[in-house]
Amino acid sequence: MCYIGGSALQKCNGCKNQFRWKELLFSIWKSYSPIECSQCGKRHTISSVSKFIVSFLILVPAVVFGLLIAPEQGLSKPVTFFLIVLMAFVISIFLPLFVKYEYKKGS
């Protein structure tokens, strides 16, 4: 069983096979593409709540940084843009700990 930061990564809702960090991360990066269990073949899709969490955790820090912190620090627009992209990337690395995938019959 893979524990990251004290939390277990998502498991298949059917056979309880542990999904890999890479599978979850790439699913998020690929616009929430479904994940297929390597053991039983069931396809899991990201939950609506998880889509909201991902959006919130990426957008809120970017907006706060871009509109409040960067101008206060006198950062140029290219530097601000680069730092926002870097921040979004770093945040996305931790998202597999928070997202939940669901198996729905017929999917």
Structure, explained:
The longest helix has 26 residues. This protein has a three-stranded antiparallel beta sheet. A two-stranded antiparallel ribbon has the order 1-2. 50% of the residues lie in helices and 12% in strands. The two termini are 26 Å apart. The radius of gyration is 17 Å and the shape is elongated. By secondary structure, it is α+β, with helices and mostly antiparallel strands.
Brief characterization of the structure:
With 107 residues, this protein is of the alpha+beta class.
Radius of gyration: 17 Å
Topology as a string of helices (H) and strands (E): EEHEEHHE
Tell how many strands the DSSP assignment holds: 5
Low-confidence stretches: 1-6
The number of helical runs is 3
Strand arrangement within the widest β-sheet reads: 3-4-5
Pick out its properties.
107 residues; alpha+beta; three-stranded antiparallel β-sheet; two-stranded antiparallel sheet; 3 helices; 12% strand
